[in-house]
Amino acid sequence: MPSFVNEREGQIDFYNRFIPLVDHSLNVDDIIADNNDGVLNGNLLEFKLRVSDLNAHLFQCIKYLSALRIKGRPIPSNILIIDCNGETAYLYNSADYLDEIEKVYYGAASRDNAGFVGSSFNEKIDYSRHIGQSRIIALLREKLYTKIHIDENCIVGWATAFYRSVPNARKEDFLGDRTGQHRTIGEIRNPTVFRDFIYPYTGQSNVKFQYLMDKLNDTLQKKNLGAFYTPEVYAEKSHELLRMAIARVPEGNDYIILDRCAGTGNLEKKLTDEELSHCVLSTVEYYEYKVLQELIGSKVRHIIPPVESSDTFNAGLVRGADALSKDYLENPLIKQYVDNPNCTIILFENPPYTEPQAVEGQKNAPWKKSYVISEMKKECSGTISNDLGNAFIWSGFKYYLRQPTDSYIVYSPVKYWKAQHLINKKMIEGFAFNRRHFHTNIDACIMCACWSNEEGTSDVLHIDGFDIKGNGELVFAGTLPVYRIYKLYSNNYNDKRTFEDDTFDGITLGLDGIESPNNSRIRPLYNDNLLGYMIAGSSGFDKPDLESSLLVAGCYRGNGFFLRKDNYLEKLPMFCASRYITYNRAWTERARIMKSADGAARFKADVASGNLDQWLRKCLLFTCLEMQNHMRTFKGSDGRFYRNELCLDTTNGETIASVDIDKLNLNEDEKRLLAQWDTLLEAAKETEEYDETLTYGVYQIFAEIDTSYKDEDDNTVWNNVAVHTALSTLKTLIKEYYNKEIVPMLFKYEFLK
Ligand SMILES: C[S@@+](CC[C@H](N)C(=O)[O-])C[C@H]1O[C@@H](n2cnc3c(N)ncnc32)[C@H](O)[C@@H]1O
Prior knowledge:
Layout: H1 7-22, H2 28-31, E1 39-40, E2 43-48, H3 54-71, E3 75-76, E4 78-83, E5 88-93, H4 98-101, E6 123-126, H5 130-141, E7 145-146, H6 155-165, H7 171-175, H8 219-225, H9 232-247, E8 254-259, H10 273-276, E9 279-282, H11 286-296, E10 302-304, E11 313-314, E12 317-318, H12 326-329, H13 332-338, E13 343-349, H14 371-379, H15 388-400, E14 407-412, H16 415-418, E15 425-434, E16 445-455, E17 460-468, E18 474-483, H17 489-492, E19 508-509, E20 530-535, E21 549-551, E22 554-555, E23 561-564, H18 572-577, H19 580-583, H20 600-608, H21 613-625, E24 634-635, E25 641-642, H22 656-661, H23 668-685, H24 698-704, E26 708-710, E27 716-718, H25 721-748
Helix pairs in contact: 21-25, 23-25
This protein binds S-adenosylmethionine (SAM).
């Protein structure tokens, strides 16, 4: 009998013995990829050093199988519970537990399993003997699966698996039903790719998946439709704004509530029948349109198109429902109201939104060539028309709202009003919602504002913030100011001077602070008076780490400016501001707080008078100890030695920073920070990786000395524990220091606003 000391040892031994006889090409990592002890062909394996309670172990396996179903993975037919030291396997059939597998479990699968009552095992196999060993091999070669039912809990997982298996598939190929004019029967109703894994879904329509329609979009639609659905409690909260707009309808007027991008009608579902009877709705995605019709079609005034014709289905989209097309703008159903002076128009929309990270990939998206965008470009300059949401907002005011009592209730990040000045209207009231609850995992602020169609500029909006608690209830997060911003760092603070002795024979770097093989967008400027290159310019915090950096030479991506030794101190607040979101992650901050140069005149005057001498040195201290300062010391390919001068390592003589920090009147926090830096540097000097010819900043220590590897149990092992510990402590201290000493002044001088 073997005597393994832990399960892991027994598991590895088992796999080493049996895998070569099952499939040579497999390795253990493939088998244990799903956070369980392993799935091998049609077998789920669970290893125990000694089996103690088969029912509890079986329940643990059921939870693993439940998780596989939700992820859209086939459910192995065999469950094998293995007693490693007893060399015994217990075989169960997963089909006998389908009801339990189709439930959803929360928490760790290994916990709270006692008390489950299962049936007896189907077979007990003693694999210390030949006959048992060959039985195990035969079982592990089996590729049989238990079919599962598709429901709301697992459909997104199976959709993802489907689009991965059939990359060109469209939503109809997965979701198509027998209702309506377009009759592609999709995979869930007639499984072919998943023939062995799922039962056909018998629901006539897709209404059961109404809240998931955006997540079921195929890859192409996900890119083009930018769909993020509104959670029910937010939809209901925004009804308060809608009702304020309805209250503004002049006596005797009719009114319509127009939602051009209604999806499955989440915003409207909970409206009263009277309110619904004023709704005019449309959406461009075909399966959303069908669900919308089924759910509220009989209660609303119009859905566009009102009924489906043989040509309504148009490559997954609804012909005539593209709100950005000329046809739509001219649609007589809507036009009759817009042209009627006795009808008030209320737009109520959560327009499609392009993730900032995805903007690059949107260059060729169909909406870029739409009629509305081409018209918008004639009136709006710059990048405003690069945003799908902006196209909805702009066209809403341009083509639909005509009277001062018309209103627009719109969900969107505040940028369109705050930074882009897309509209100058009067806000009646607005709310801030947490973007995390709109089918994303990003904590950020989405404003839902009720705009009156009256001109009016204001420097600040006050909106009430609401998050959603675990139990689904709204929780008030305070009244949040949103200030408008007017000036950019780049036009007001960046150093744009050129010098006669500037040369262009230097080097360019990547964001990791070392030379970059990429094609450079900037010329490799060199001058002895250069200290480095700063990136901090964009007004938003969409990509905080890409848009915040300090390097010893120019960055190949550009978007920054060269720091010169004579005035670098007064430039540092920009770098400090660019770290704000990293240290202030609450949902209320991102997409609400931005960077501005609106306080430039005051700031420059106070710098000139010397009032800010001490604070600028505090900014310097932060900059020297902040991990996003990626300045390193190294020999460049141009033969020059590049030294990090914005760090406090004086081993090889003073740095520019150390000289300036000497003039800071240190408080207790600052003394603690410097002592922690000393601890870190001393620890770094004790390591093999340390190079005494270099001048180290925090980032270079992190990148070159705080190295690690993974042990065989996949745990991270740090090569230099003292360095790693000192770095972790420094990170905590620097965050506290930043929020206490730096941030208030950044707001005071409107670097943050
Ligand atoms: C952010 S979702 C909002 C859906 C729904 N109103 C809600 O709040 O849950 C935006 C919707 O706009 C639709 N859409 C995207 N582009 C469109 C276009 N050009 N015309 C009409 N609808 C569009 C998407 O299919 C998606 O349903």
